[in-house]
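Below is how a single chain appears once it has passed through the pipeline. First comes the sequence as given, then the structure the pipeline wrote out for it. We keep one example in the README because the format questions we get most often are answered faster by looking than by reading.
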Amino acid sequence: MNRLFGRSKPKEPPPNLTDAVTKVDSRVESLDKKIGKLDGELAKYKDQMKKMRDGPSKNMVKQRALRILKQKRMYEQQRENMVQQSFNMEQANYAIQTVKDTKTTVDAMKLGVKEMKKEFKKVNLGEIEVSLCEPSVSWCMC
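Resulting structure:
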């Protein structure tokens, strides 16, 4: 059958939230670099326009600067979206970790109750009552 239909592809592990956050954060850093580069270009064009007189060449530089400014705004918007996405994934990861911690705590408490019941069965209440009612104890409840 395998020769006829072939073998199934090995399944990839499901995506991990921590890995996804890391990927998104690296993309945010990449966008930050692009925005910084565009800031440099805008500063260059701004200095160029200060030195130029009004005319067609200044208008061309102004158009380039506007194009760069639009591109910068687009990158900033993408960056904000990715930062929000990263935050949401971190919050989901935190919630998952909190649930796991709660489950661990509940399991530990159940184990503690079992141990306490075992130890309580070993205690002889009659011996405790006798030792409390000795004449040396002034607060005897007998």
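Residues 56 and 126 are 106 Å apart (CA to CA).

See the next section for the split statistics.
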